[in-house]
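Look at one such:
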Amino acid sequence: MFWHNYCYSIKSISRNKSAVIWTLIFPIALATFMYMAFGNLFDTDELMTVIPVAVVEKEENKGLEALLEALSEESEDQIFSVQKLSEEEALKALYNGDVNGIIYKGEEISLTVGENGYMSTIIKTIIEQYTQSEAIVKDIISSTASEEEKSAAIKALLDNKTYFTEGKTSNGYQNIYYNYFYAIFAMSSMFASFIAVERISKMQANTSSLGIRRAIIPKGKTMMLCSEFLAMVTTQFAVMIIAFIYMNIIGIRFNDKYLAILLILLLGPCVGLAIGAIIGSFAKIGDGAKMGICVSIGMGLSVMADLVASGVKDTIEHTIPILNRLNPAALISDAFYSLNVYDSYNRYFTDIALLAVIMVVLLTISVQILRRNTYASL
């Protein structure tokens, strides 16, 4: 009886057009539109690009000129792209965004940068380090030390000077736009509640004719609920895998930790189904109202997981962090993020453990509500 009901439920769920649209087609369409909107930002976002700067020569400064030549030399480590312009041309280029900063070369070095950003910060840092080093060299030269000691001190200073080093915290994909795609999986998981509401309603005798027939069969509600839940998990897990494969095909990368990702794709919908099971268990609420509650809860939790604007989850983390621990959508998004950014699995397992606890608690509540539902007559 268990497997008969399981197979029947899978067929019934797969024919539910509304469920297919909201849990599969809508997330895939949303991912497609987001990917198209972001264009090629996934390929162009890097830790460092060559920074265009203008140089206005007021006086000769051989040391600064040598530095700029070294930093603008074409190689993998190139930092600057230097243009020698007049002051008027340089200001115009800065205003138009053609350069990120203007370096005024002379005995006194000055700098003008555009809007604040990491490129402006890099230019400032390099020029500040150079002026500090130049001042130290001048002090060394004017000191009473021997020529050998002066040469050794200057050489040691120059050998230990590093202006910029590109670093990497992990082998994952750290593009900020990926947060939106993590949130799409979270939203799809929460929308699984639609299916649970529909299936649970069909188990209750006072909400459907199918529920009446099921109520009189000589089998317990627990067995029936387990077979229904397993069927819902199977179909939703398949939906999540299809969405995951599709996103990989269009160019979204989620690292190669596939077993860990599959666990997220399994647990996420389980929590959404558990939420829907509780909502569907309240027989006195109409089906339309139940769906409205599911939409409100699903969208609310997904918005807090960065579906609409990146940074919402981080703001909550710094103000009311307990909300992120209780929000399954935020946990799903954070689990994807931790796999992509961190080499350690500590944060990932914390998210998975919290998801599992939430799922068990919600399922326990829904089972208790369903088992206590009784009918005066059928």
In short: The longest strand covers residues 51-57. The mean pLDDT is 80. Residues 2-42+174-372 form one domain.
